[in-house]
Design brief:
246 residues, alpha/beta, three-stranded mixed sheet, CBS-domain, 3 domains, Uridine Diphospho-n-acetylenolpyruvylglucosamine Reductase, domain 3, single chain
């Protein structure tokens, strides 16, 4: 009976990860560092063992272990929020304009987050016989994380705790932005868009923490709001016009 539970010397160690075992079979040796691993993955693509999308995903998985939440968060200036005293109609206007599904709810300003509102929670109040609306009735607890938190640990927490949005704070406790599970997944699989996303509507797109693309037709007012600048729109209305004046 003891033979049924014994392992031969040729059996792979259960402590070795599945990915490592596969690499050993393919390349007859373990990568010694991240550079070796990246090289093996790219060699695999060149040898038609994996396709480019798979390579991008594998490299994305490795990248999230080296990034912090601050690197991928939606910055404070671009957070779309609701106020705790807003009416149902006012909330719906914000939801429709932004097309988001989750919103931080604030009291005085963005440093005072009262909770999270999910757009779907407003549906019962749209019936003719519904009870009077109050945001407090649908307010959910906001999860707060430091901006120094590692992205891979953030993803693990999102999955284990089953929530999709977290408020990001700096070392002084001030709100610096927010992060969603979609932000992290996009690092791995690329940008996630649905049938309602309109590429042409995005005048300002964040590529990384310190890199953006801005369309020439982006209104100066929107640019100022996104980046906290104070360019005048007295003579020109767009960023392209402002650049041409420089």
């Amino acid at each position: 009976m003891s033979d049924d539970h014994s392992q031969s010397n040729d059996s792979p160690s259960p402590k070795k990860g599945f990915f490592t075992l596969i690499l050993n079979q393919l390349f007859h040796g373990e990568p010694k560092n991240r550079g070796d691993l990246v090289e093996l993955i790219r060699d695999s693509e060149q040898n038609d063992l994996i396709d480019p999308d798979t390579r991008d995903m594998l490299e994305g998985v490795m990248d999230i272990a080296e990034q912090r939440v601050r690197d991928i968060m939606i910055p404070r200036s671009q957070m779309v929020t609701l106020k705790r005293n807003q009416t149902l109609e006012e909330c719906l206007d914000v939801i429709i304009d932004s097309a988001h599904s989750r919103f931080p709810v604030i009291s005085e300003d963005k440093d005072h987050i009262e909770g999270i509102l999910m757009a779907k929670d407003l549906l019962p109040f749209m019936r003719a016989d519904s009870e009077p609306f109050s945001i407090d009735k649908v307010l959910r607890t906001a999860v707060v994380v430091p901006e120094s938190k590692r992205v891979d640990r953030m993803l693990k927490e999102f999955r284990s705790q089953r929530y999709h949005m977290a408020i990001v704070i700096d070392e002084f406790g001030g709100v610096s932005g927010l992060v969603t599970i979609e932000d992290i997944l996009e690092l791995i699989v690329g940008e996630i868009e649905d049938e309602y996303d309109d590429e042409d509507d995005l005048d300002i797109r964040q590529l990384s923490r310190h890199m953006y693309t801005v369309r020439a037709l982006a209104p100066i007012e929107d640019f100022n709001e996104a980046f906290g600048t104070h360019f005048s729109d007295d003579e020109v209305d767009t960023i392209g016009g402002l650049v041409m004046q420089a």
